[in-house]
Amino acid sequence: MPRLVDVIPQVFENLQARMTSEMPVGLPTGITQLDDVLGGGWERQELSYLVGDSSVGKSWLASFWILAGAKWLAEHPDERPMSSQEKENKLPVIVFWSLEMAELQVVVRLLTQTAKQVTEKDFDSAKLKRGDLGGPDESITRDLDNNLWRRRAAELCKAYLTLYKKWAHHVIAEFDINRLGDFIELLDEITKNFDIVMVVIDYFRLMQESESEGTVVAAQEERSRQLITMAKSFDCHVLSIIDINRLGQTTRGGVKLQHIRGGVAAQYDADVIMILEKMISPSEELEEDSIHAHLMLKIAKQRFGRQGSIELYMNQATGHVEEWDLRERMEYNGTLS
Question: For the whole model, what pTM was predicted?
């Protein structure tokens, strides 16, 4: 067991490296305001939870963060979030454990998000799964003689090539494992050849335990403890999507920390807890099914930093996410209160 007198020089050396190095402290999120609140992005050896009600856009936001991180790693091959020297010769990767969506759904979502970034064109993810190249407000079915169809097909190919040849090399996705213990064994194998910068889990409640004994609360507590251990053991940031309990679904006034379905243990184990909520204005109430969502991302807990709120715009058909700008969004939702 190390003594404090032995630990202090190591920590101070790390601080000196941060002061003199151009390497980022954490993996950029793709949202400037969020990077500022987090103090530099997703930092290693921390556990974050993204909390919200069903269908608010948690999975879309998580895939946006995965894509933003992979893009940054691809564009900065000589940089990475602060890590130990033994990882310098390993390719940095983000590991995505998808317990809810299958390969087709995940890849289509990443394709539509990539297309928006590299072509500035909107592809509706639900339509794309059916072979329709249209955006949210149009349909473009297969017609080789249609110039619009050919142009859209070329744009989709450009997005595919960018995702496949550049960004996807920094993402490892797992779809078949259900048990947390098995996933940890997989990370053990991955870390032999790769530098795991971040792990994203979609989502907390679907992880199965190695043993079924004990109450649901006890299982949730153990699951949360294993996630924080995972962050420290693999020197990575762990982000897990987590839903809210029944009380949170029926209580007015917004989601609170006590509404996290992972129980009290999740509240205390997490270094960062973010709550994603949809903001409703009088004009939006008339279009509750609108794909143009005005969201509030609340940093409800941050162990090593400040709390704060960030307003986001999300197109829930294409997965496009950006910081909210009222003047640019009035065309979608009318005058907001």
Answer: 0.88
